[in-house]
Design a protein that fits this description.
40% helix, Rossmann fold, globular, 2 domains, alpha/beta, 7-stranded parallel sheet
Length: 374
């Protein structure tokens, strides 16, 4: 079987490489077509294929105007794809986003009859559906002709179904045959599960970037308020990038913030997790948020956002969902974590994390998306 992945974010997230690596171990031939924005992204997240014929193929560098002109971008990418990939060798295509990638898979289906699946991510629902309603009819066509529509989380599907414009077009229950397949996490975390209560429950941990959607500044406000009742409360921050200087300026005089900067060593991250009592990230537009699962693997109750990322993923009560737009909701969520920590810890103790192994997830794709036993 030869799969063509159309992956807009291959260089920006290891999620895709982790899944494709497992497909490779199963002997699936793969071509990864990566729309390229910057030349320095060439080679990022690339791994050594063991299956003959597999390769990463890059598009020409996208122009600045392609950010604004969706149709022009897709037309240029499609021509580029056809010049670099032999469609006669492709049995199935996988689009990692509904619009940017899904359009190319839809075109391949229309022109060459190649079946495809399409994944729906947070950006599709919270950016395209909100700010480009003119593209929703296209999104509906892409969904209608897909062999399988894959949601990364149930919260994304629910957000899509609530969209006013989509509801007007969804006359025939387009999502009836869809499936939710969560992302996985690195085996390192699953092989180092930690459930001890010997940790500092005055320490709250944040791991992530400092871009606006991660909501770090509002989190700082909430921690400052929560400290009025829990005076020994500390915030440990791991991360950086984007608005790092702005965040550093805000925390420079805060004695209760321990800023560790970027930490890439997994063993060091593991040690930091085990020192802290909770993990908190009330972010916006979160497709899934692997860091929540990494924190859970180390026994940390989590604070996350309502209708975002991991919301709805857990049957076990492993943390608190809050409104990320309201500081008061984050404060209430923090106090709930503190008050009921024993209950959350007990639920985490019973939580089976093996469902988040990439090898297990790859098998689900084979069986339920490709309809292929491997």
């Amino acid at each position: 079987m030869n799969i063509l992945h159309i992956c807009n974010d291959f260089a920006y997230s290891q999620v895709h490489a982790n899944l494709y690596r497992e497909f490779d171990r199963l002997g699936i031939e793969q071509i990864i077509f990566h729309p390229l924005r910057l030349t320095e992204n060439i080679g990022k997240n690339v791994f050594q294929f063991s299956t003959v014929g597999s390769a990463v193929v890059y598009s020409r560098i996208l122009k600045f105007h392609h950010k604004l002109l969706f149709e022009s971008k897709c037309s240029a990418l499609y021509k580029d794809l056809l010049s670099k990939v032999n469609t006669k060798d492709v049995d199935f295509s996988m689009a990692t986003t509904l619009f940017s990638d899904g359009y190319l898979s839809y075109k391949l289906f229309r022109d060459f009859g190649i079946p495809y699946s399409v994944a729906v991510r947070s950006t599709d629902v919270q950016v395209f559906f909100r700010f480009r309603p003119d593209l929703i009819p296209l999104g509906v066509r892409i969904i209608k002709h897909a062999e399988k529509v894959v949601f990364i989380s149930d919260s994304i599907r629910e957000g899509m179904e609530r969209n006013f414009f989509f509801s007007k077009f969804n006359k025939s229950d387009l999502l009836k045959g869809s499936i939710t397949i969560n992302n996985g996490i690195d085996d390192f975390w699953l092989d180092n599960i930690y459930r001890s209560t010997k940790r500092n429950f005055n320490k709250v941990l944040y791991i992530g970037t400092f871009e606006a959607r991660k909501n770090v500044k509002r989190l700082l406000e909430a921690i400052a308020i929560a400290r009025s009742q829990k005076k020994n409360l500390e915030l440990v921050i791991v991360g950086g990038g984007k608005d790092q200087q702005g965040v550093e300026n805000e925390i420079s005089d805060l004695q209760w913030v321990d800023f560790k900067g970027r930490v890439t060593d997994k063993n060091q991250l593991k040690a930091i997790c085990r020192e802290c009592g909770y993990f908190v990230m009330p972010s916006f537009r979160e497709t899934f948020g692997l860091v929540y699962l990494e924190a859970l693997s180390q026994g940390l109750p989590i604070l996350y956002s309502i209708g975002e990322g991991v919301d709805g993923v857990f049957k076990n009560n492993v943390g608190v969902a809050v409104n990320p737009h309201k500081t008061s909701s984050i404060v209430d969520g923090l106090n709930t974590l503190f008050r009921y920590k024993k209950d959350y810890l007990a639920q985490i103790e019973e939580f089976d994390m093996n469902r988040f192994r990439w090898s297990e997830i790859a098998q689900i794709y084979c069986e339920q998306v490709f309809n292929k036993d491997i």
